[in-house]
Design brief:
By secondary structure, the chain is mostly helical. It is built from five helices and no strands.
Length: 127
């Protein structure tokens, strides 16, 4: 029996398996969740087209998680600055918050410097 195909090269069952792989803690549990034998799922993972789709799905999920983190970053900075500035915060919390603020500020400057250096190199390479 052949499986129905979707608009891409993966079957409907394979798409369900991709979803299960993203939500379950192990290949075994993913196989159970999508009602595919574990051996079959492991075989699919060795196929280039399935592996590529799995990597793309993981990348998409990670990008969504990063976007959520970026949305929450303003609140995180507020917490750090509040703990750091609040005189009645325990000293160790104030020090940890201040240290984190400095670390992040330094890292941001380093990233900006790297970005500028890359831009210069790209401009030189384009010439």
């Amino acid at each position: 029996m052949t499986e129905p195909q979707t608009t891409d090269t993966l079957t409907v069952r394979q798409h369900k398996a991709l979803s299960a792989l993203l939500t379950e803690p192990s290949v075994s549990r993913a196989a159970t969740a999508c009602e595919v034998p574990e051996r079959t799922l492991r075989a699919w993972l060795r196929k280039p087209e399935f592996d590529t789709a799995y990597r793309e799905a993981r990348r998409d999920a990670t990008q969504q998680a990063i976007a959520r983190l970026q949305q929450a970053s303003g609140a995180a900075v507020h917490v750090l600055l509040t703990v750091m500035a609040r005189e009645n915060s325990p000293a160790h919390a104030r020090i940890a918050a201040a240290s984190k603020v400095l670390d992040l500020a330094i890292r941001a400057v380093e990233l900006e410097d790297l970005e500028q250096r890359i831009k210069i190199l790209e401009e030189r390479y384009a010439e």
